[in-house]
Amino acid sequence: MKKLIPLTIGLIFVLALAVVIVTTLTLKKEGIIMEEAQLQGKFMDRAGATFVGSETCKRCHERTYLDWRTSLHSRMMRNAKTDSDANIGDFETSSDTRTFKREEVDYTLGSQWKQQYLKREGDNLIVLPAQYNVSTGEWKSYFPDQPDKRNWFTECAGCHATGVDPEKKTFVEMGIACEACHGPGSNHVEAVPGYEISTIIQAGRLTPALAAQICGSCHTRGRDKSGKHAYPVDYQTHKGVGNIRLYFDEASQEKNPEYFWPSGESRYSNQQYLDWKQSEHSKVGVICVTCHNVHKSKTTQLGSVQSSNPLDAIISKTRLFEDTLCKSCHTTVQYRYAHRIHTFGSCVRCHMPRIASIGEAGDAHSHTFRFMYPKASLKAGGLENQPNACNSCHHHKDTPIENLMGTLEAVKTADMPRPFHVHKGPEDLGGTQDISGN
User: What's the average model confidence in pLDDT over 317-346?
Assistant: First the structure.
């Protein structure tokens, strides 16, 4: 009996060892199979990627997703039938301009400056012929006699929804979602480990010009190469790697003077990219995301600046607030010329005056960052023909353009080295003056 005990223990040990060996080999084999399965059918680049929707992005990027979810981009388009907060228009007060009822609205577009309304007609979506201007609470006509201008899939869809197919009249997601800027994400979701970066677009890894084009694909005006659509349809899947000029003919002052002031600044909304391209910022690589945080707002330093609207930084998602942002790059040891009388003011008020219209005239900033001289308004025949930076603030006091010109010249002259005559412009010597006022 005593001889059987060591034999039994040895047998148990051998059996246990065999179990360990078999289990190890099995797990290793399964691991190899799983690894091979993981690599099989996965992606290493963006070729052929399709749209998967922002809820898929949320699985790994929840914090960024939640920040985006509270942004204006995410609320660009909403379902009026399922979202009780989508419709912010005043449908209770009677209006001669608005000819439709709340019940006819299937989707809403916008929420900050204005709101427009979509109605489904068959497989198509039509923008109804009146918009609600939020700041004034008024209804304004929207191409009531031009139905072609209100065809959503040809005129609007690519900048209000994500993954738009205008031929099939479909879209993947309402609003400006993750893939509207980062490109289709199916390959990124199933990327080969180590190739996550190459399967998605990140603006921070692009050249300044390519990064700015992503924002510019919506903040612009023009037609795609087919001439059918007012947005770059084919650029949706080529963002970050393709040049937008290959897919879109941008509006210009030469071809479309109705969209621009004589000085070159934009008259209407969503043309910030066209302004920026004219600026010194574009030449040195200062792009949209240099100033704007598209996912969330930076805490603003309201105590150190003065502003007529402290919410500007939150609404526009600038990284810092007005002067604080500008002066993080533009530093000076002394204020001279026009700056000597505006040390209390704002860089934005003078270099980004509100001269374009989104809902109402004068609710959108210029993005050329040029100072717009009063002399240009005088030459153009008045403010209605050419706004300027000075009157954008002083006009409410009925300050004559000539007075502003005189003050501006006086403060400039005070800092000019003598003799003054060598600094006179051609207009002072009987020549002509450039419209910019320089």
Answer: 77
Domains contained in the chain, number? 2
Task: Report yes or no on 295 lying in a domain.
Answer: no
Q: Are the C-beta atoms of 139 and 131 separated by less than 8 Å?
A: yes
Give CA separation, 429 vs 313, 406, 415, 421, in Å: 44, 17, 21, 9
| 8 A C-beta contact, residue 81 and residue 58 | no
In whole angstroms, what is the distance from residue 95 CA to residue 203 CA?
45
Residues 314, 228 share a domain? no
266 SS3 class: strand
Domain final residue pick, 224, 240, 258: 258
- What CA–CA distances, in Å, run from 324 to 99, 293, 370, 381? 46, 15, 19, 36
283 part of a folded domain: no
pLDDT tens for 6-65 read: 666 667 766 777 776 767 666 666 554 445 444 444 899 999 999 999 999 999 999 999
Same domain for 194 and 319? no
Average pLDDT rounded to a whole number, residues 352-359 = 86
Q: Is residue 272 part of a domain?
A: no
Residues 6+ apart with CB under 8 A from 245: none
Q: What integer pLDDT is reported at residue 10 of this predicted model? A: 64
What is the distance, to the nearest Å, from the Cα of residue 225 to the centroid of all Cα atoms in its chain? 22
Q: Are residues 89 and 151 in the same domain?
A: yes
Asked if residue 160 and residue 83 are part of one domain, the reply reads yes
Residue 393 clears pLDDT 90, i.e. is over it: no
Q: Which domain holds residue 59?
A: 54-258
Indicate whether 102 and 205 sit together in one domain.
yes
Helix (H) or strand (E) run with residue 114 in it:
strand 114-121
Q: Which whole-number Å values give the CA distances from 274 to 222, 228, 251, 252, in the listed order?
A: 10, 21, 8, 8
Whether residues 251 and 306 share a domain: the answer is no
Distance CA 159, CA 176 (A): 7
CA distance 283 to 209: 9
Within-domain flag for 22: no
State mean pLDDT over 260-278: 93
Would you say 347 and 381 are in contact if contact means Cβ atoms under 8 Å apart? no
Asked if residue 314 and residue 253 are part of one domain, the reply reads: no
Tens digits of residue pLDDT in 183-232? 999 999 999 998 999 999 998 899 999 999 999 999 999 999 999 999 99
What is the full DSSP assignment across 153-165?
Answer: HHHTGGGTEES-B
